Amino acid sequence: MELAIGIQVEELPEGMFLATSDELPGLVAQGRTVAETLEIARDVARRLIEARREREGIPSLPTTGERRNYTIVVAA
Fold first, then answer.
1. Phi/psi at 40 (nearest 5 deg)?
2. 11: helix, strand or coil
């Protein structure tokens, strides 16, 4: 099963990137690039979901088939 988790990424003053999620409390990841940060966030999310599954069963997050949010970046 694939779950869809909304992630917010912000650039920190020192040039690093920080990812958090309102949908998955405890998800915090930091990296040198957005891509690296998202990769780390995916690993953190996987571990958080596994831990939650062991305690509570299947987490109540939307599956990828239920969500259709997209973000595009356009240079202006």
1. -65, -40
2. strand
Q: Strand, coil or helix: what is 76? A: coil
List pLDDT tens digits, range 8-56.
Answer: 999 999 999 999 998 888 999 999 999 999 999 999 998 998 888 888 7
Q: What is the pLDDT of residue 39?
A: 92
Alpha-carbon gap, residue 70 to 67, rounded angstroms: 9
- Contact criterion met (CB below 8 Å) for 1 and 63: yes
The distance from CA 56 to its chain's CA centroid, rounded to whole angstroms, is 20
| CA–CA gap between residue 32 and residue 23 (Å, rounded) | 23
Pick the CATH number of 1-76 from 3.40.50.880, 1.10.10.60, 3.30.160.250, 3.30.450.40: 3.30.160.250
